[in-house]
Write a structure and sequence with these properties.
Layout lengths: L4 E7 L4 H4 L11 H21 L5 E4 L3 H12 L29 E3 L16 H7 L1 H9 L14 H7 L1 H9 L4 E5 L1 H12 L15 E7 L2 E7 L44 H12 L1
Parallel strand pairs: 1-4, 2-3, 2-4
Antiparallel strand pairs: 1-5, 5-6
Helix pairs in contact: 2-3, 4-5
Length: about 280
C-alpha cells in the first residue's frame, strides 16, 4: 500500500451474557451495548471524513453482537460539507448515501472470539468451582492452553486462524474496521505494534477504538474513546498476567471435577509452537 491507511480495531459492545459474567455464547447487545455501537459508528464516520477516501471496509465475526455493530456502522451517515467534493462520486454537496459510498463488509468465522469448548456459556466462578484445574492451567499459560471439548481453542490457535484476515489488512490500499472481542483484538494489536508473542495474551484491551495509521515510515497508534454506551467486559479465566497469592497451581488441586477430556500439548511442543507463531506474527 502507498500513502496513509487507517485500521480501526473496535472492541464489541456489551452483551446480555457479558452482563451476567458468562463466557462466550451468542447473545444480543444490551441497550448500553447498542448505544455504544451507535456512538462508535458516529466516531468512525467522523474519523473517515477527517482522513478522507472511500468508506472503510468492515471485517467482523458471524455472531449477533458483531453483526449488530457492523449494521450500526453501515447505517451511520454524515453529510458532505457544502461545496466540498465527495471522495467517492466527486459530486459537490453529496452525502454518504451515494452508490460510491457503499461499504464492503466481510463476515468471517475467523474473526469470532476464541472458543471455550465445553466451558462456553459458564461464568468464571463456575469454571473455577467446577473445573479448577482448567482455570489454573489457563492462568499458568494463556498462550498455548487450549480449552477442552469440541472446538476449544488456545490463543495460539487464534493466531493461526487470523492469518488470512491479517493478510487482508496488510494488502488493503484503503481503510478498514475490525469489530471483535478481546482475543482477536490482542492478536491484531500484537501484529501491528510488534508485541512479542509471549506478551500478547495479556495486552490491555480498553473500551473504544484503537486506531492504527500507516504511512511510509510505519504505524502509529492512538486510542479513541467512545462517548456513550458500554463495551463488553467479559474475559476467560486466567486473565491476570500472574498467579495471585493462594491461587491454584496446574495439576495440584483435586477439588471439583477436574477430569476434563482434552489433549494438551506434549512436552517440547509448546516451545516449538511459540517459535512457529513468532514467524506467523
Amino acid at each position: 500500500p502507498t500513502g496513509e491507511q487507517a485500521i480501526w480495531l473496535v472492541l464489541v459492545g456489551e452483551t446480555r451474557n457479558a452482563c451476567a459474567g458468562v463466557l462466550g455464547g451468542d447473545s444480543s447487545l444490551t441497550a448500553a451495548g447498542s448505544e455504544y455501537a451507535r456512538a462508535t459508528a458516529e466516531l468512525l464516520v467522523r474519523r473517515e471524513h477527517e482522513i478522507g477516501g472511500t468508506p472503510a471496509a468492515v471485517i467482523c465475526g458471524t455472531l449477533k453482537r458483531y453483526v449488530a455493530m457492523m449494521e450500526a456502522l453501515c447505517e451511520a451517515t454524515e453529510p458532505q460539507p457544502p461545496g466540498e467534493r465527495c471522495p467517492n462520486c466527486k459530486r459537490r454537496g453529496c452525502d454518504s448515501g451515494c452508490e460510491g459510498a457503499d461499504r464492503r463488509c466481510f463476515i468471517k468465522a475467523a474473526a469470532n472470539e476464541l472458543c471455550a469448548g465445553f466451558l462456553d456459556s459458564l461464568t468464571q466462578a463456575e469454571i473455577r468451582s467446577k473445573f479448577p484445574r482448567e482455570a489454573a492451567a489457563r492462568q499458568a499459560d494463556k498462550l498455548t492452553y487450549r480449552y477442552p471439548g469440541a472446538g476449544g481453542e488456545s490463543y495460539a490457535d487464534v493466531v493461526l486462524r487470523m492469518n488470512d484476515i491479517i493478510c487482508m489488512l496488510e494488502s488493503s490500499v484503503g481503510n478498514a474496521v475490525v469489530i471483535c472481542d478481546r482475543a482477536v483484538y490482542r492478536v491484531i494489536q500484537a501484529y501491528f505494534d510488534g508485541t512479542p508473542i509471549e506478551e500478547m495474551p495479556n495486552l490491555e484491551v480498553k473500551p473504544g477504538v484503537l486506531e492504527f495509521r500507516r504511512s511510509h515510515s510505519g504505524f502509529s497508534t492512538t486510542h479513541l474513546e467512545v462517548s456513550s454506551g458500554a463495551a463488553t467486559n467479559v474475559s476467560g479465566p486466567g486473565s491476570k498476567p500472574r498467579l495471585l497469592p493462594g491461587s491454584l497451581s496446574p495439576r495440584l488441586s483435586d477439588e471439583g471435577n477436574g477430569d476434563t477430556k482434552h489433549w494438551p500439548l506434549a512436552e517440547g511442543q509448546q516451545s516449538d509452537m511459540v517459535e512457529a507463531l513468532k514467524v506467523a506474527l
